[in-house]
Structure formats: structure tokens, C-alpha cells
């Protein structure tokens, strides 16, 4: 019987936690994945306990931790957010902290305060349109203006910023303009993600041809920007390899990432809404070692779809959350995969 | 632990541990401690042994089952089994039924 600690490969991995520590939010976005906007959070003591459990797990697994703190809107719980920033700044096993926010509550004072956390490597603001009209139609009145103001505060304070754009039928014609907006603002990273139809009406979802068209436009623009430009467009997610064989990556869900919810509940990924336990009740190890969902996701040969036999499996594998939302089967084919269709 | 001491004893896996058998191309066997997170990689024989400690089978029953499955000299197998029981009870992996 060998202790797994002896495996040298185990020391090199990073592990990503996306922690939605509050459900409280000041916006009601049309594509939001939350089912409720519960104002009753668990106590600060319990939140810090979860942080301790996560840090301990990274130590036991010999992984270097990365954590994104989010909500809801994390800046609505400023006290908790800064307590977590303090915790992870001093946590031995976490080297990277990010914040995912709608940006509307960030002002100059907050930006200055954020600057004092060296481990805080990136603050991501959601921008879902290149114009106030589009963004606000999705996120609500004045959300665009406030988000841009928040972004500018961060940039003025020399903080690394990223923009997340959720692709829907409402913004599908604006991707190039969104790239230009990010370039003009001086944003460092830009991610486009397909909307997952969890709660929202299907009318927000794009079809395969629309996704293909949008991804190809973005990939072309990415090439024009070159590798040395200030703005990096992230393409290390499933399906991007279909635009360029250099792009794409197999999703880390089930391997080196977890999503923690406001009450300690755990999901494989925020968009793959299958509860697999609660950190406070079950502990993280029971969840990680015994969840049949996680074991399914770890075994690529279990996929029920053509993904299993695809040449791009190692750099794609499809989005399991998208398969689950579309077919109720997280091992099914990614509904947006266009590999099988003619490109001529 | 002597033969006589061990014969009728019944053990089960502690609630702190779970066994896992990977069924991808390569068979892999693990024992996980769900309390402290430690991971132990097992060989097939150790896994098969541990799997049999279900709280109903006695040590002698387990020995008889194993001797049918593995082509090993009986005394050698018995010595191995008892040595493993000692190690596993020492690490609180196996708990003796009261």
C-alpha cells in the first residue's frame, strides 16, 4: 500500500475553486444561473471555516490553490469579501486570488484597497454588450455605465482586469465591438462563454451555427491582435480547438476544480447544477472521493458521445454543463459542437 | 497475531475510509481517507482483501475465499492476510466488530 504523496506528479498541479460565497445580488440578469437571491448567508465564522477546509485540502493534495471569490455580487458583502481576501492572502496553499463581479459597486476607494492584496491577480467584470442599450437590456438600468466606471477604477489603480461576456441571442452581433471596447479600456483578458440554459428561457441560447460563426470571428480577431498585444482573448475552453488546433483545453471539472455555493453546497461546476454534497456537513474529502458524478467526469472513456472517439478529445471534450442542460446527460455530446458539419 | 487469535474475528472498513476501483483502460485501486484526505494506492490483492471485510465475514471465511481466488501457497497467503490485518487495524482502517 503506497501513500499517494509519494507520487511526484501530484506536486505540480494547481486546483481551482470558484466560490459563490453569497447569493445576494443588486442585479437580476436575464441569463443568471441562480434560482434565488437568498439574503440569509451562513455566518462569517462558517465561511472562514470553509476557507480553512479548502486550504487544508490543497495542502493534503499537494496542489497550489487558485480561488475566485464571487456571488451573487461579492461587493455587496464587503466585510466577508475582504475577510476572505485577508484569509487567502495569508493561506500557505493558495497562490492566486480572483474576484468575479458585475463591477457596479467598485469605486476608487475599493480599487485602492484591492491594490493592497498582492495575491489578488485578477478582477473579472461581466460585460454583456458593447453598448449601454444591449448590456442594460440584459443586466438592468445603468448597469453598463457603472460596470465601465468600476473597470476604469481598477485599471487606473493598475489592477489586472478581465471581462467575461456571456454569449446570448441578445449580444451575438456585438462580439467584435466588445473586443474593441476592451482594447480601448485597457482590459488585460477577455473571455467569451456560451450561456447555459439553466433557468433562463431557451430564447437566449444560441444554436450551433451561431456559435460556430461567433467563435470563428473571435478567433480571427485574436490572431490579428497577436500574442504580444495588451488584450489576451482566452480560448482555452472546449470547442475553441475547432477554430484553431492550437486553441482549446479539456475542462478541469472533476479533475482539478470545484464550485462552492453560498451555503457550503458543492457543484462540479457552477453551470453543471448537480449537487454533490456540502462542505460543512460532508467535508471536502468525502465529496471529492465518493461523488459518482465526479468519477464519471474523470473517466473520459465513459462519455456516451462521439467526444470519446474525437481527435480533439484531449483539448476539448465538450462542455459537460452544456450537455447536461441540453440533454439531461452530462456525458452526452456538447450540443454546440460543429465538428461533424461541413465547413465549406 | 496468531492463527487461533484471529480465526473467528470479524472486521469492517472504518467509516473514515472508502475503497475505489477505477475502471478506465488501466485498473487502479485506491483507499481514500475521507476525514483527513489521504490517498493510498493499493495493489489488486490488497484491494480484494479489504473489500471482503464487510462486517459479516470472519477472518477464516475471508482466507478461504482468497485462497480460491489467488493461486498462492496457503500458508504464505495466511501469513500475508494476518500481517495485513495487523497493519490495517493498527492504522484504524479496519475496525473489529464488538
Can you offer a commentary on this structure?
The complex is a heterodimer of chains A (344) and B (98). Chain A is α/β, with parallel strands linked by helices and 344 residues long. Helices cover 33% and strands 16% of the residues of chain A. A 10-stranded mixed beta sheet of chain A has the order 8-7-6-5-4-3-2-9-10-11. In chain A, helix 1 runs parallel beside helix 2 (78-90). Chain B is an alpha+beta fold and 98 residues long. Chain B has a domain at 3-15 and 43-96. Chain B contains 4 helices and 6 strands, in the order H-E-E-E-E-H-E-H-H-E. Chain B has helices spanning 3-6, 44-52, 59-69, 74-90; strands at 10-13, 17-23, 27-33, 39-42, 54-58, 94-96. In chain B, the strands form 2 sheets. Chain B has a 3-stranded antiparallel beta sheet with strand order 5-1-6. The radius of gyration of chain B is 13 Å and the shape is globular. The chains are: A alpha/beta (344), B alpha+beta (98). Strand 1 (2-3) of chain A pairs antiparallel with strand 4 of chain B.
Topology of this structure?
The complex is a heterodimer of chains A (344) and B (98).
Chain A: E1 2-3, E2 14-20, H1 44-61, E3 64-70, H2 78-90, E4 94-101, H3 108-114, E5 120-126, H4 132-139, H5 143-156, E6 161-167, H6 175-185, E7 189-194, H7 208-225, E8 232-234, E9 257-260, E10 265-267, E11 277-278, H8 279-282, H9 284-290, H10 292-298, H11 320-327
Parallel strand pairs in A: 2-3, 2-9, 3-4, 4-5, 5-6, 6-7, 7-8
Antiparallel strand pairs in A: 9-10, 10-11
Chain B: H1 3-6, E1 10-13, E2 17-23, E3 27-33, E4 39-42, H2 44-52, E5 54-58, H3 59-69, H4 74-90, E6 94-96
Antiparallel strand pairs in B: 1-5, 1-6, 2-3, 3-4
Distance between the termini of chain A: 56 Å
**In terms of structural class, how would the helical and strand content of chain A be classed?**
alpha/beta
Order of helices and strands of chain B: HEEEEHEHHE
Shape of chain B, please? globular
Report the portion of residues of chain A in β strands: 15-25%
The gyration radius over C-alpha positions of chain A equals 20 Å
Which of globular, elongated, flat, extended, rod-shaped describes the shape of chain A?
A: globular
* Mean pLDDT over all positions of chain B: 89
Number of strands of chain A: 11
State the end-to-end CA separation of chain B.
Answer: 18 Å
Helix content of chain B: 40-55%
Amino acid at each position: 500500500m503506497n501513500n499517494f504523496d509519494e507520487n511526484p506528479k501530484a506536486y505540480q498541479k494547481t486546483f481551482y475553486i470558484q466560490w459563490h460565497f453569497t447569493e445576494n445580488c443588486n442585479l437580476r440578469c436575464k441569463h443568471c444561473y441562480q434560482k434565488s437571491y437568498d439574503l440569509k448567508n451562513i455566518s462569517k465564522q462558517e465561511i472562514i471555516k470553509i476557507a480553512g477546509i479548502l486550504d487544508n485540502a490543497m495542502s493534503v493534495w499537494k496542489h497550489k490553490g487558485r480561488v475566485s471569490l464571487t456571488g451573487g455580487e461579492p461587493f455587496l458583502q464587503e466585510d466577508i469579501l475582504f475577510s476572505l481576501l485577508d484569509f487567502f492572502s495569508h493561506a500557505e496553499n493558495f497562490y492566486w486570488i480572483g474576484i468575479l463581479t458585475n463591477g457596479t459597486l467598485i469605486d476608487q476607494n475599493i480599487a485602492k484597497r484591492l491594490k493592497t492584496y498582492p495575491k489578488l491577480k485578477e478582477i473579472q467584470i461581466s460585460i454583456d454588450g458593447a453598448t449601454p442599450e444591449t448590456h442594460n437590456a440584459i443586466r438592468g438600468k445603468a448597469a453598463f455605465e457603472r460596470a465601465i466606471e468600476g473597470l476604469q477604477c481598477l485599471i487606473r489603480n493598475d489592477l489586472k482586469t478581465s471581462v467575461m461576456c456571456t454569449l446570448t441571442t441578445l449580444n451575438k452581433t456585438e462580439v467584435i465591438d466588445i473586443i474593441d471596447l476592451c482594447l480601448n479600456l485597457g482590459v488585460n483578458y477577455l473571455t467569451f462563454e456560451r450561456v447555459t440554459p439553466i433557468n433562463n428561457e431557451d430564447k437566449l441560447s444560441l444554436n450551433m451555427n451561431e456559435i460556430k460563426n461567433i467563435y470563428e470571428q473571435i478567433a480571427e480577431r485574436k490572431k490579428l491582435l497577436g500574442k504580444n498585444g495588451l488584450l489576451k482573448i482566452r480560448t482555452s475552453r472546449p470547442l475553441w480547438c475547432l477554430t484553431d488546433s492550437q486553441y482549446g483545453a479539456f475542462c478541469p471539472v472533476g479533475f482539478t476544480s470545484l464550485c462552492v455555493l453560498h451555503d457550503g453546497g458543492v457543484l462540479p461546476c457552477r453551470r453543471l447544477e448537480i449537487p454533490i454534497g456540502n462542505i460543512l456537513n460532508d467535508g471536502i474529502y468525502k465529496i471529492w472521493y465518493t461523488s459518482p458524478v465526479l468519477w464519471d467526469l474523470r473517466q473520459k472513456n465513459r462519455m456516451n458521445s462521439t467526444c470519446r472517439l474525437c481527435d480533439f478529445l484531449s483539448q476539448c471534450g465538450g462542455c459537460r454543463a452544456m450537455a447536461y442542460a441540453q440533454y439531461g446527460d452530462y456525458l452526452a455530446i456538447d450540443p454546440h459542437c460543429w465538428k461533424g458539419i461541413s465547413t465549406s | 497475531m496468531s492463527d487461533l487469535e484471529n480465526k473467528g474475528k470479524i472486521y469492517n472498513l472504518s467509516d473514515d475510509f472508502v475503497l475505489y476501483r477505477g475502471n478506465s483502460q488501466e485498473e487502479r485501486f485506491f483507499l481514500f481517507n475521507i476525514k483527513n484526505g489521504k490517498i493510498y494506492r493499493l495493489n489488486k490483492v490488497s484491494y480484494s482483501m479489504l473489500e471482503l471485510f464487510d462486517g459479516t465475514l470472519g477472518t477464516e471465511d475471508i482466507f478461504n475465499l482468497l485462497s480460491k481466488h489467488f493461486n498462492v501457497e496457503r500458508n504464505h497467503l495466511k501469513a500475508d492476510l494476518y500481517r495485513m490485518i495487523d497493519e490495517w487495524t493498527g492504522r484504524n482502517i479496519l475496525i473489529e466488530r464488538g
